[in-house]
Amino acid sequence: MPSKELSWKYVEETTVEPDVIARARAQSVEQGIDAVSPATGAQLALLCGAVDAQSIIEIGTGLGVSGLWMLSGAPHAHLTSIDLEADHHEVARTAFTDAGHPAARVRLITGRALEVLPRMNEASYDVVLVDGDAASILDYIAHAIRLVRVGGLVLVPHALWRDFVPEPAKRDGVTAQLRGVLRELRESPAVRIAVSPVGDGLLQILTLPE
Fold first, then answer.
1. pTM
2. Which letter, b or e, does each residue of 65-101 get, where b requires 16 or more Cβ atoms within 10 Å of its Cβ?
3. Which of 20, 53, 78, 192 has its CA 20 to 30 A from that of 68?
4. pLDDT tens column, 71-88
């Protein structure tokens, strides 16, 4: 019988990562950082390229896997990446340099995202990636929608949260929050959404004109 799980595995395993991203992924695994999956990264790259992203902001740098993927799709974009861990930024900065991205186009901000985001300019970004602390996901998405321009994209990896979101019996805090935000976004006239099953689920939010 055909298998959705087999299809998912095929897509993940046949995605080819550039060497610099593969190295960043290996370092992430060593440090226990849950980086976006290869297929998720490929989709991020495609989406950033599709909207011709010039300005990207991400919540959660990790060791640079998601940022590297996005810049591979939009190589002339400026990336702002926020993470609480200074050590993560040191490693990520090396990865961005090794990938050939000029330092002037990559701004790494070390700090708590919920303290940094209110200071960022509204409607100034083509793409906002939300991949920070899961407990703050609702606040992050609210900030992201404020920061992205009309016609821009908010992208949320891990939107199916370990496959708990589709499972009605799972009612932990993060799962309940994600179910709620998906329901609200589907009903909102201000956005259009789609959820891709790649990786741990990728929520894509397109902001619409009023």
1. 0.96
2. bbbbbbbbbbeebbbbbbbbbeebbebbbbbbeebeb
3. 192
4. 999 999 999 999 999 999
Taking the alpha carbons of 182, 187, 190, 196 in that order, is the dihedral positive or negative? positive
What residue type is assigned to position 150 of the chain? V
Q: Model confidence at 115, in pLDDT bands (50, 70, 90)?
A: very high
Tokens 């949260």 found at:
161
Report how many helices (DSSP H) and strands (DSSP E) the chain contains, helices first.
8, 7
| Listed residue (124, 192, 117, 203) closest to 157, CA to CA | 203
The answer to whether 68 touches 95, Cβ cutoff 8 Å, is yes
CB 59 within 8 A of CB 130: yes
What are the CA-CA distances from residue 197 to residues 5, 156, 167, 173, 191 (Å)?
10, 12, 14, 21, 20
Give the DSSP letter of residue 121.
Answer: P
Lookup result for tokens 């179910």: 179
pLDDT at res. 2? 65
